[in-house]
């Protein structure tokens, strides 16, 4: 697979006569921040579930971290992290208990979990909240903790499904600082979002419309192609079927 973290070839997921994902093809390089953009219902989450080894495609091919999505789902799960758009930790466990639990789920040795959990709590500035129930934390802190837990085992790829939904702009910026840090450490970041301004933070983005990938390029190149300085305008143009002004 050379330096490719994800490879998709005509990936399709069909429910009866409805194609949620329609012959999607793309590649993501190792260490890349790849934005998977689109409106609700565009097929983003369905495609992500396939790539995370949680659902089988109807047809097409895909490899994640070098593993086949049809035959090697368990190997895929061991090499990725995942954060859902709904908060994915346990509200009735403390901060440290959540870290310990998920560290065990991801197969991190118990002795290492103990040492690294303390480091993580200090890094997040949660020393005084370490023994509080996660349900008592503000949403922004919950999301940053969930992301930290998703990469606690140093996965090859982390999948983030609408990770900044509902948080304030300052926290969103802080969250993206954490994403940059993970990418610099060599973790490939695959992120879905409907916030078009967040596309600017990605190395490359794809735009999904009705299950199809309508475009894929750097944010700068896409804005140039559509003759605009706004990713919002790029997305709206694609949604209404406008043609590009430049190649």
UniProtKB/TrEMBL annotation:
The keyword Cell membrane is assigned to this record: no
Zinc listed as a keyword: no
Lineage of the species this protein comes from: Bacteria, Pseudomonadati, Bacteroidota, Cytophagia, Cytophagales
InterPro entries for the chain: AAA+_ATPase (IPR003593), ABC_transporter-like_ATP-bd (IPR003439), P-loop_NTPase (IPR027417)
Name of the protein this chain belongs to: ABC transporter domain-containing protein
Keywords: ATP-binding, Nucleotide-binding
Pfam families reported for this sequence: ABC_tran
PROSITE patterns: ABC_TRANSPORTER_2
Entry-linked SMART domains: AAA
Domain ABC transporter stretches: 6-235
Signal sequence, renumbered to the chain: none
Parts forming coiled coils: none
